[in-house]
Each structure stands twice: as C-alpha cells, then as structure tokens.
Write a structure and sequence with these properties.
The chain contains nine helices and 18 strands. With 343 residues, it is of the alpha+beta class. A hairpin with a 2-residue loop joins strand 5 and strand 6.
Length: 343
C-alpha cells in the first residue's frame, strides 16, 4: 500500500486552554504499516478496537494488490479474459473509485497496477536498480488501462482490456480509516483519531480544542514537521509524496506515484497534503494532486471538490489555498509561500 506522509500529533502538539483529557493509544499492524487509534483514556475502548482490528485485517486481505486474496483473483480473471464474481460491497468500492478516476481526469487511476508492478512496487521491500525498459513502459501506456473499461452487471465484473490490473493502494486506506471511525462511533466512542501509517481521520474533539495533525517535512527525516494542521470532527488529512517509497538505482530515486499518462514517476512536487470530509476521496485526491502538474492542480482540486490543499514543491516553496492557510501553524515557516485559490 502506498505509504502516506502526514503524522498524527499526540498530546504534546495540542494547545488547550484547560488540561486536556488523558489519552490511550492502541497499535495495530495492518496495510503494511502501523495503524494507531488514539482515544480518551476514561472509557472502555478494548472491544471497539478489537472490532476495528478484525475489519481492517479483512480489508487488508481483500484489497491487497499482490498477496493472495480477492483482488488478486479479480486481476487474474481480467488478465485471462474472464469475468469475476463481485460481492455487492466490493462493487460499491470499485464503482466509487471509477467515479473518482473520471473526476480527476484520469490522474487517479487504480487500473495501472501493471505499471506499478513493472516499476517494482508490488513488493514489501523497496525496489532497487535502473528503471524498467522504456519500451515496456510505453507498451503498457499505449494499452491505456482505465476503470472505464470495467463492466459490472448482475454481480459480475468483466473488462475488455486485459492490461487492466487493479491496485487500490491510493484509495482503500482512506476507505478503511473512515470505516474504522464509523465502527468506533457505533460502539459509543465519540472522540478518536485513526492514523494509518500517517494518513488520518478524526471524530469529535480533544477536550475543548480540535484535534491536530502534523505534516512531515519532505526532507524525509523522521519527526521533522513542516506544519501542524487543525482537524475538525469528521475530517481526514491525507498526504502524498515520493520521498518515502521509491526505487533507487545509480544514485537516482524514482518515486512510487506513477503518472498514468506517461508511465513514469510524478515529480512535480515533494508532497501534497489536503483535508476532506470523505476518507476515500481524501486518499484519491492526494494521489491525483501529486500527479498533477503545476499548471493543472487547481482545476483538478476544484473538480474533486477539494479546497484545503498544501503543496510543497521540489525547491522548498509552498503553495496553499486560503482555506488551508486558515488551518496551518508553521513549525518551520518556508521562505516562499503562495496562496492560490481553487475557485
């Protein structure tokens, strides 16, 4: 799964006008990363967290892009020119992802799993060595895999393009975080943060103040934060960037976020952070805005309904929308900040 770059802040990053409640943090190993659930300590959260753990483990098995499971079986059927049985809940996720591909003008494209595999990102360890052959990349791009080539009818999924290989690494984590928060709320827990390897969502508040989340600086040093964001009830903070997961060869790093248009890693920015009220949308939009070029990201954000965006460019300069600027507290204020509206 794609590793995201926003880090959950703990009690020390929260500013409160009165003593905030004590917190308890639960840690789960899922989606190839650590998922932490932070809650007020004055409630019995064990059964609810166990329920979340079971659900996230199920989602991990069902949606993993290369380990044996439901998604791999679907991809095998597509590659063989066969249709696959599709449970209703799985169909709903795939349909929603297809809608987001359309709204992002194809910059978020879960059908390019073969390209990700070609670059070596269908593995738990970081790939090394030179990039794939140009001819192999060009061949896959020319076959134009897209969610538009999926056809769902009567509980069956078919595709007329065998180059389609589904990989929801830039989407399913957002769905999972939202699902986890819903399960906690159903268990009577009104205040919580679920942080999946850096991407997070919140419900409620921390005492009298909103929760806060820190955005890691794209220099990649652990604990080096660029900014702290205020996060409100029902919101999600997702960050996408190429400095944590990459392919390295001959001293060159090739990031894991692939531009579907040319098959090569996107390098327009170091990181993109955003806030949204929908977990899957937040995850997909972070990917799309990391792929989008400097001249097009505002249109893509507007098309996705995202107005709280911060982009840290390769030269260290920052672009952010006025709506995001209202949420930011800088830990290290950049030399160059430009406010840009998406409207």
């Amino acid at each position: 799964m794609r590793t995201a770059l926003a880090l959950l802040t703990l009690a020390g990053l929260l500013l409160a006008c009165s003593r905030p409640p004590e917190l308890v943090q639960h840690h789960l190993a899922v989606f190839g990363t650590e998922v932490s659930i932070t809650l007020p300590a004055d409630q019995d959260s064990g059964p609810a967290v166990a329920r979340v753990d079971r659900e996230l483990q199920r989602m991990h098995r069902d949606w993993h892009a290369w380990e044996p499971g439901q998604l791999v079986q679907i991809n095998q059927a597509i590659a063989a020119g066969r249709c696959a049985d599709l449970p209703e809940d799985v169909a709903a996720v795939i349909k929603r992802a297809g809608e987001l591909e359309r709204r992002s003008r194809g910059l978020f494209n879960p059908a390019i799993g073969r390209l990700l595999e070609l670059w070596g990102f269908h593995a738990s360890e970081l790939p090394r060595g030179p990039p794939p052959a140009e001819a192999d990349i060009a061949d896959l791009v020319s076959r134009a895999p897209s969610m538009r080539q999926l056809h769902i009818r009567d509980g069956r999924l078919c595709s007329d393009n065998r180059a389609v290989q589904l990989d929801f690494g830039g989407y399913i984590k957002g769905v999972a975080v939202e699902r986890a928060l819903k399960l906690l709320a159903e268990s009577g827990l009104e205040h919580a943060i679920v942080n999946a390897g850096g991407d997070l969502g919140v419900i409620g508040r921390r005492g009298r103040r909103s929760w806060q989340a820190a955005v890691q600086h794209p220099d990649g040093h652990s604990g080096h934060h660029a900014a702290v964001l205020e996060v409100h009830d029902g919101e999600f903070v997702f960050t996408s960037g190429n400095y944590r997961r990459y392919r390295q060869g001959a001293g060159i790093r090739h990031g894991h976020i692939i531009d579907p248009r040319d098959g090569y890693p996107a390098d327009a920015v170091s990181s993109v952070s955003l806030i949204a009220e929908d977990g899957g949308l937040a995850d997909a939009a972070a990917t799309a805005l990391a792929v989008a070029g400097n001249g097009e990201w505002r249109e893509i954000a507007a098309a996705l309904g995202i107005d709280r965006v911060m982009r840290i460019k390769a030269d260290g300069s920052v672009e952010l929308t006025p709506q995001m600027a209202a949420r930011v507290q800088w830990r290290e204020r950049p030399n160059r900040i430009k406010r840009i509206s998406t409207r």
